[in-house]
Amino acid sequence: MIGYVTLGSDDPQKHAPFYDAIAAEMGVGRMMEFDSFIAWGAWGGGCGVALTKPFNGEPASVGNGVMVAIEARDPEQVRRLYDIAMAHGGSDEGAPGPRGDADPQGNVFYAGYFRDPCGNKLNAFCMAPAE
Predict the structure, then answer these.
(1) φ, ψ (nearest 5 deg) of residue 67
(2) How confident is the model over 35-74, as pLDDT tens digits?
């Protein structure tokens, strides 16, 4: 349903290494790049993410209540993505772990929350068997 998500950055080139590392863990790379815009993902496959300078020329700002969720394969990848984010200038918004009760199949929502160096909130998540 969603083709891609764009987040604001006053300096996409400066903040690109954060997303380069996240994208590499997800098995993709940069798919489009200009001075003021960089997109990561794969043509014809899944949702991508992009950083861009705001079109109106105003400073980039973080949306209150806005979050981008990255679907991971398993809890180990959730932890790796969280660790990658922390190692590349991200900040903690909630360490990886189960959230809430198990669903009828015995799975829990497993997630780690973080912000990119621009302040945008992201998470890595998966559904995983309850421990």
Answers:
(1) -150, 140
(2) 899 999 988 777 789 999 998 999 999 888 889 999 999 9
Cβ atoms 121, 61 nearer than 8 A? no
Q: Could you give the domains of the chain?
A: 4-54+66-129 (3.10.180.10)
Distance (Å) of CA 64 to CA 30, 43, 119: 27, 30, 11
Q: Are strands 107-115 and 121-129 parallel, antiparallel or unpaired?
A: antiparallel
Element housing 107 (H / E): strand 107-115
Q: Residue 104 CB: number of other CB atoms within 10 A?
A: 5
